[in-house]
Amino acid sequence: MSNNIISKVVEIENCNKDSLIKAVYKPEFWLTVNPAKHMDAKFIAPNVLYTKITEEIINIKIEMEGELVLQDMGEQEGGKGLLIELNVRNNKDVRELEGRMRIKAISDNKSKIGVFINSFKLSSDFLGLIGRSAAELTLRTKITDMLRNLERWLKTNSLNDL
To answer: What are the structural domains of the chain?
Structure first.
C-alpha cells in the first residue's frame, strides 16, 4: 500500500525517455510545463532548480521562491524505470516537500511518467493563509496541469528543442 498523498501517472506520446531525462535538467523544460501565472527558473547546480513563482490561489496573490533538488537514483529493478527523488529546500512557505518522479519507456517515442508526493508540510503562516486541504488540492492540481502542459506541448514540439 502506497503512502503517497499525491500520485499522478500519465503515458505521453512523442516523448522519448532519454530525451525527457535530459530535458528535466534544463530550466526551459520547467518554464514550458509551468502552470503558474509567472515563473523564473534556473539551475544553480546541476541538480538544483531555483524558482521564483507568482501565482494566485483562492484570490490570494502568492509569491514563492526556493529550490527543487532532483536526485537521480538511476534505473530501478523490476523494469520500474528511472527514479528521480525530489525535495524542496530554502523555501519560506514550504517547510517540506518530498517525492519522486519515475520515467519509464513504453516505446522509443512514448514514455510513462509518474509523480508521487509523500510528504508536504507548509510553514504555519502559509498554512494559516490557505489551509492544508486547499494547499494539497492546489499542489495536486498543479502537478496534473504540469503533466497536461507537457503532453500538450509535445503534440507540436520536441524535447530536443529545449
So the answer is: 6-157 (3.30.530.20)
